[in-house]
Amino acid sequence: MTQSLRVVFAGTPEFAAAALAAIHAAGFQVPLVLTQPDRPAGRGMKLATSPVKRFALEHALEVVQPTSLRRNGKYPEEAAAAIERLKNTPHDVMVVAAYGLILPQEVLDIPPLGAINIHGSLLPRWRGAAPIHRAIEAGDAETGITLMQMDAGLDTGAMIREGRIAISPQDTTATLHDHMAKLGADLVVDALRDLERNGSLPSTPQPQDGATYAEKIAKHEAALDWRRPASMLARQIRAFDPFPGAFGTIDGVAVKIWAAEPIEFEANEDAGVIVDSGAEGVIVACGQGALRVTQLQKPGGKRLPVRDFLAGSPIVKGQRFELREVAPGA
Q1: How many CB atoms lie within 10 A of CB 242?
Q2: DSSP state of 61
Q3: Nearest CA to 114 among 3, 8, 205?
Q4: 122 is in an annotated binding site
Q5: What is the arithmetic mean of pLDDT over 33-45?
Q6: d(CA 188, CA 161)
Q7: Right CATH number for 6-214 from 3.40.50.170, 1.50.40.10, 1.10.260.40, 3.50.50.60?
Q8: pLDDT category, 329, cuts 50, 70, 90?
Q9: What's the DSSP call for residue 223?
Q10: The two domains 6-214 and 220-312 share their CATH topology (first three levels equal)
C-alpha cells in the first residue's frame, strides 16, 4: 500500500477551513497546519482562534502560529523557528488558502512538490486580498477559483486549474464566499489526487493583460456616497455584506444598509433625499436612478426588514441621508 500524499496546510478563515476539511476527509496526511496567531475579537476582545485552528485541534492535527515567516521582519526568531519546524516536518506539498502572511521564497522552496495556492478569483483578474468583494463591487458577471503554483510575487504564479461561478444579482460576499469555498475545496482535492498519481501538475503562466489588484476592504469605504449611480451603490452594499457593512447617515445616526436594489427614477431630487418610505422599501434618490432599501440596522440593533425597521425607527419622505462621510460611531 502506497503512502498518501503528505500535505502541510496554511490558512486562517472559514474559506481556508473548508479546504482543510476536504483535504483531511479525502484521506491525505496533514502533518502540520499553519495559521495566524489568536487575536482579540468581539465586544469583549477575547482571544479568538481561527476557523483553521479550530478544525485542526478538533482533528488532532499539529498547529503552529508564527507571527511572521520572514527572517528579516519584526519577528526573526519566530520566523526562524517556524521555518525550522517546516524543514523538519516530512511532507510533499504545501497548500495555502487565505493564510494572511507573506511566504518568502525560502519557505516556498521547502515542499518537494511546491506550494499550491487556492485563490478566490479567475487570475489574473483580482490579485490581492479581497477578490470576492471586489468582483461583486465591480459588477463582474462571473468569478471563480484559481489553483496557482506559488511564487514570491503577489498572486503571480503559474495557473494549475480553475473553476468558474456566475455572480447573481442577489449574491453578497457572504453567499458567494460559501460557494467559492466549496469549489476551492473540491478543486484542490482533485488536484492533490492528480499530483499523487502523476508526481506533478501541469501549469500555465498567467497572462499579464487584464491583471487587477483587489485592495483590502477598509472601513471608510463603507460610507455610501449617494451622488453615485444607484446600480453602483447596490453592488457596494452586496460586496460589503458581511463586512464592513455599507451605511448611510441620517439625522446624525449611522444606519447600516444590508439589502437594496436600483430602480428607475426620473424626478429632480437631490442625492440622498428620501423620495418614498413604506413597507416595500425606503427609496433614496441617487446621482443616477434611485435605491430601494429593504433591510436596515441601527446602531446596537439587529438587521431588520424595512417594515420592522420603520415600525421602531421611522424614516419619512423628505428626510435626507448626509452626503459627507461619517464613520459609524463617530
Answers
A1: 11
A2: -
A3: 8
A4: yes
A5: 88
A6: 9
A7: 3.40.50.170
A8: very low
A9: B
A10: no
pLDDT category at 237 given cuts 50, 70, 90 is: very high
Q: Is 4 within any annotated ligand binding site? A: no
Three-state DSSP class for residue 259: strand
Long-range pairs of 27-30 with CB within 8 A, sequence gap ≥ 24: 28/4, 28/192, 28/196, 29/3, 29/4, 29/5, 30/6, 30/61
Q: How many CB atoms lie within 10 A of CB 238?
A: 26
- Residue 3 pLDDT grade (very low, low, confident, very high; cuts 50, 70, 90): low
CB 290 within 8 A of CB 277: no
Say whether 313 counts as a known binding-site residue.
Answer: no
Strand (E) or helix (H) holding 164: strand 159-166
Instruction: Report which secondary-structure segment, H or E, holds 25.
Output: helix 14-25
CATH class assigned to 220-312: alpha beta
Q: How many residues does the chain have?
A: 330
Terminal Cα-to-Cα distance of the chain (whole angstroms):
63
Grid cell 469583549 — which residue?
A: 44
Is 262 annotated in some ligand binding site?
no
Q: How deeply is 99 buried, as exposed, middle or buried, from its count of CB atoms within 10 A (0-12, 13-18, 19+)?
A: buried
Q: How far is CA 56 from the centre of its chain?
A: 21
Amino acid at 263: I
Spatial distance between the Cα atoms of 257 and 304, rounded to a whole number of angstroms: 10
Q: Are 117 and 96 in contact (CB under 8 A)?
A: yes
Angle (deg, nearest 10), helices 131-138 and 173-198? 130
- Cα dihedral sign for 176, 177, 179, 180? positive
d(CA 240, CA 234): 10
Query: What are the domain boundaries of the chain?
Result: 6-214, 220-312
Residue from 90, 98, 103 nearest 62 by CA: 90
